[in-house]
Amino acid sequence: MELKRVYFIGAGGIGMAALERYYLSRGLTVAGYDRTPTPLTRELISEGVAISYEDNVEAAVPAEFRTPDPATLVVYTPAVPHDSKVMTFFREGGFNLVKRAKALGHITEGTKALCFSGTHGKTTTSSMAAHILHSTGIGCNAFLGGILLGYNSNLILSATSPYSVVEADEYDRSFHQLRPYIAVVNATDPDHLDIYGTEEAYLESFSHFTELIRPDGSLLIHTGLKFVPRPPESVKTYTFSRHDGDFHADNIRRGNGRITFDFVYPGGVLRDIDLGVPVDINIDNAVAALAACLLTGELNLEKARQAVASYPGVERRFQCHLRQPGPAGKVVIDDYAHHPDEVSSSIASVRALYPNRHLTVAFQPHLYTRTRDFAPEFARALSMADSVVLADIYPAREEPIPGVTSRIIFDRITTPDKVMIRKEDFVNTMKNRNFDILLTLGAGDLSFMVPSLCRSIDPSSTISYPND
């Protein structure tokens, strides 16, 4: 029977939002439940998704969704508590209930899927690739893990393109539901140890991911990764990075808020790539995105150069909210970095863009388990800053763990100028500290307060990028 309606449990997740928008575009009835309202859920409601914030079947589930029906699909995210009343209703009621990853795999199974995986880099590389394919006329259906600025969406649609672009998330082994045409592995630094238990199990999940590549496909691996790839024998395997590999950057130039490089690929060089968002990590990301798009065999390189230069960036990925004029003007940048390697990379990028300026980093740890597992690493990364403002842990899906608070990071930070705050005190704290350069980091909700802080400092402030 043809699908007519889809219900989402955890409807406010960024990955879920792309699917909700996709099903809306196909004319289906879409509804869902989430615990808390956010700017994203309000946008989804305005677009036609019926979202409730009450974990109560009567309030949250429209009547047409309460009877099992082959025309009804229920999609959930593993982040939803197992004992949720809405979740229990659908789980025990005989409904067609699937994880988000399985729904995404079903949507993309008839396409040539470009799947971007890795501990970090997934959102930026996939959004870059989607922008390149869209801008060069190849087109794609893209399901992204962040809001692509300039598009104001994490979904890009094409009625004619055979390609899909997917952020292949390793959390809960979700990416094992995909069937890549081109698979990209950006990084394999251990994460989600609450799911995998050990680094070895985490690495094994990436090895299995490469086994799922189509026989006519390709595998792109960042140089220096620990895991052992196991693609089908007919799959072509390539390496990439900023400095070496089959695809890499050469002749990197930095200056005047810009980064330019030459893109080296098997058999040629595309000169003078100008990064639309000029931070060092985006050199690797651009190389990966360009390489994946080139492997489709359809990319016009001259148009690709223009596409990279016009790449607008992703919300919360090194997003500049305030840049006052002059050599001493305040700068506020927000970044989603929530793993120690991401934190150190983001801090290093700001240092490169604004040398000899005083850098304050405000960090909100994400998850009790991640804080417990990586407290020393977080402390070392944050110690790269001149001043550190550390907020309470954002719990997301987790219950508190005895003895695990932001304090276990704070006590290890070697930067003398450091302070712990409640999230609610963030704006007043920063206004009183008279900062120079502020970098806010984390995957929680501290970022929602950044625009308010910027407006309180400069009422005329608007979101911009360092090279605007």
List the helices and strands and how they pair.
Elements (H helix, E strand, L loop, with lengths): L4 E5 L4 H12 L3 E5 L5 H9 L2 E3 L4 H4 L11 E5 L8 H8 L4 E3 H9 L3 E6 L4 H14 L5 E8 L4 E4 L6 E5 L14 E4 L7 H4 L2 H13 L6 E5 L13 E6 L5 E9 L2 E8 L2 E7 L6 H14 L6 H9 L9 E5 L7 E5 L4 H14 L5 E5 L4 H15 L4 E4 L16 H4 L6 E4 L5 H8 L3 E5 L8 H8 L11
Parallel strand pairs: 1-2, 1-4, 2-3, 4-5, 6-9, 6-10, 7-9, 10-11, 11-12, 12-13, 17-21, 18-19, 18-21, 19-20
Antiparallel strand pairs: 7-8, 13-14, 14-15, 16-17
Helix pairs in contact: 1-2, 6-9, 6-10, 11-12, 14-15
Give the tags:
468 residues; alpha/beta; Rossmann fold; UDP-N-acetylmuramoyl-L-alanine:D-glutamate ligase; Protein-Tyrosine Phosphatase, Chain A; 3 domains; 6-stranded mixed beta sheet; 24% strand; globular; disordered C terminus
Radius of gyration: 22 Å
DSSP helix fraction: 25-40%
Instruction: Label the structural class.
Output: alpha/beta
* Principal-axes shape call: globular
Q: In which order are the strands of the major sheet placed? A: 8-7-9-6-10-11-12-13-14-15
**Total count of helical runs of at least 4 residues:** 15
Beta-strand percent range: 15-25%
> Largest beta sheet, briefly?
10 strands, mixed
Classify the fold: give the CATH topology of the largest domain: UDP-N-acetylmuramoyl-L-alanine:D-glutamate ligase
Nearest-integer average pLDDT: 91
First-last Cα distance: 51 Å
CATH classification, class level of the largest domain: Alpha Beta
Domain unit count: 3
Which regions have little confidence, pLDDT < 50, spanning 5+ residues?
463-468
- Total number of β-strand segments? 21
Second rung of CATH, namely the architecture of the largest domain: 3-Layer(aba) Sandwich
